[in-house]
Amino acid sequence: MKKVIAALYSVQLLNYAVPIVTLPYLSRVLGPTGFGIVGYAQTVAQMLLILVEFGFDLTSARKVAIHANEPETLNKIYWTTVSAKSLLAVVCCIALTGIAFLGHGSDANRVSMLLSMFIIWGSVLTPVWFYQGTQRMPTLALSMLLVRAVMLVPLFIFVRTPADVNIAAALQFSPPLIAGTLLTIWLFTARQVSFGCKVTVRDIVHDMKDAYHIFVSSALTSVYMYANVVFLRAIAGNADVGYYVAAEKLTTPLRQLSFPLIQGYFPRVCQLYANGQVSSAVELLRRIVTIFTVSGVALLIGFQVLGKWFVEHFYGAGFSKTYDILQVMILVPAIIGVAATLVQLCIVASGNQSVLKRIYVGGAVFHLCQMPLAIYLWGGVGAAWSVAATEFFMTVVIWFRTARINTHLLANGQSKNAAGTP
Prior knowledge:
The chain crosses the membrane at residues 35-56, 77-101, 113-131, 140-159, 165-188, 284-305, 325-347, 359-377, 383-400. It is a multi-pass membrane protein. Keywords: Cell membrane, Membrane, Transmembrane, Transmembrane helix. Its main location: membrane. By secondary structure, this protein is mostly helical. The chain has one domain. Helices cover 86% and strands 0% of the residues. The protein has helices at 2-53, 56-66, 71-102, 107-115, 117-125, 128-133, 137-150, 152-158, 165-173, 175-189, 201-225, 227-236, 238-256, 259-274, 278-314, 320-329, 332-348, 356-419.
């Protein structure tokens, strides 16, 4: 387990080097407007990506972890999940086409929107859930890192002026599709999955019902993860979107630093809850939450000391507004790390994902009540504060729900033990 987590963090840190190389280059070549065009198309695709993923990355990963030693069952899980995601991807591509041609954006906006379909099909072909459930996440992470690194070559060769914004979009959006294709080929060549598995509509519907609560939670999360960009563009235009997206591009990899630890322990925690070892799961949960809390405090202190200098030298003088946004958004990665730990390593791992829908409905309502006014009054900084406030609100609610679940499971376990004692 420790080796898997260490490998994931090694790859994740190397993965963080890719945006450190590309973002300063793209911000200077494309400028705030071009940067905003690419960022807006990517944001729309990521919002639709929630429909494609439909919660399968968690529910299917849990099934794979539980049935890891049953080849026929794994093959059925694989084909059912891929079939469902493919159908949803077709719907999303139709939506992207409509947005591209029915909107009032420029030709560059339209082409970037169509190119974002690469992101959609990259999700279909990248079986993150299968690799996570079989504890092969280092293989997946390393493959995606290598593809992103190789794509740097054409990026620096062909993206030279603001007119190359669509080339930049294509090269930024294609790595998931390429990596996903390679990872899928590996599964077949290694005989982890095979052709000839019959999947019925009933199978797809059954899996979608199981993942429905995760999907609703993710869809509601998108309200406060991505809607800010849409509102910013409507109120202030592409340049302000560029400032905000530039800040997101730095905090997103920081948020992702929590994923290796969570992904590494997810199969084990699912098994602990399945075997009734709730106390062990709770103790592990506490240690991981402590790690993310301490890391968040250290990150906040470090940014206060070096943040302004870093932004000026990283993005250039034209992105000075990004520093003001980052002063707020630097809080978000640690908050999300704690929330993701509680959600995935307790609520989902214990099979209680049905409670997530009500939690995230509350979060979406909270965000919609304060986000538009914050953006109208303070622009990008207001958008950052609205996200931070909502994430904090959600984490507190999730914390109390997690405590109730574990208390209930521990009480039931103790009752059963007492009942079985002569």
